[in-house]
Amino acid sequence: MTLGSGGSSVVGESLDLPRNFRLLEELERGEKGIGDGTVSYGMDDGDDIYMRSWTGTIIGPHNTVHEGRIYQLKLFCDKDYPEKPPSVRFHSRVNMTCVNHETGVVEPKKFGLLVNWQREYTMEDILTQLKKEMAAPHNRKLVQPPEGTYF
Prior knowledge:
about 150 residues, Ubiquitin Conjugating Enzyme, single chain, about 15% strand, globular, alpha+beta, 4 strands
């Protein structure tokens, strides 16, 4: 009986499976639309077997300067997702305290969900929390860039 390198490659492959199963679950949920339908997400490229590049959409919350606006975001789930959070960047221009004004990147140190990331969190959690952040007192009335402008 030999357990050499054959055994370790099986372990390596099995570590990849939970990530892909998790992302397949997230894909299914994201494509159905979440909650009230104001947040959604899906893969950029259906042929990407690593399921790394995603697009998210947030419809701005009522009674804020964001109301009626549609924001597009890019999420990138590297190979260590869900152990580590995805990188998140707004494609649509937005003025929020947790978003870099030059690049559109959601800065982890300024966005609690990313700085306190836990494996159980999902892309859905990120998008719904960003929507809540839009309605927070420090963001709800900030002057916004013209609608339809992009980073």
